[in-house]
């Protein structure tokens, strides 16, 4: 039964793949552009933040997001699943599609922008803070994201 459901929802999985790929491609493109010139740090962060925000708006409000729900984040998919809003098989394939799309979008950005080092877009926590604090902050941010989504 669940396999038949997965076969009937392949378009939604494809849309999640494409949405995640677009998010990473445009977001990483913003990182690349922000690092082309010697810009003030504030302007660099603004460019990067706006590129990710624009990518999310494009994905969520396009056909991709309207058809699949525009999760583009495994944490959102897990929240939908835990609230009984998704079947097991759909949650699994959504997460697989999101991860694969993120890898593809990152790879495409790396090739198109001709980066010399993939470390430019690598997110690492600062060593100035304890790992437990970083984990707590990430958890709170994910909680706030999901709370906002469920309140809409």
UniProtKB/TrEMBL annotation:
- Keywords from the named record: Cell membrane, Membrane, Transmembrane, Transmembrane helix, Transport
Q: Which PANTHER family match?
A: AQUAPORIN TRANSPORTER, MIP17260P
InterPro entries listed in its UniProt record: Aquaporin-like, Aquaporin_transptr, MIP, MIP_CS
Q: Name one GO cellular component term.
A: plasma membrane
From the broadest rank down, the organism's phylogenetic lineage runs: unclassified sequences, metagenomes, ecological metagenomes
Q: Which GO molecular function annotation, any one, does this entry have?
A: water channel activity
Q: What is this protein called?
A: Major intrinsic protein
Q: Membrane topology type, per the record?
A: Multi-pass membrane protein
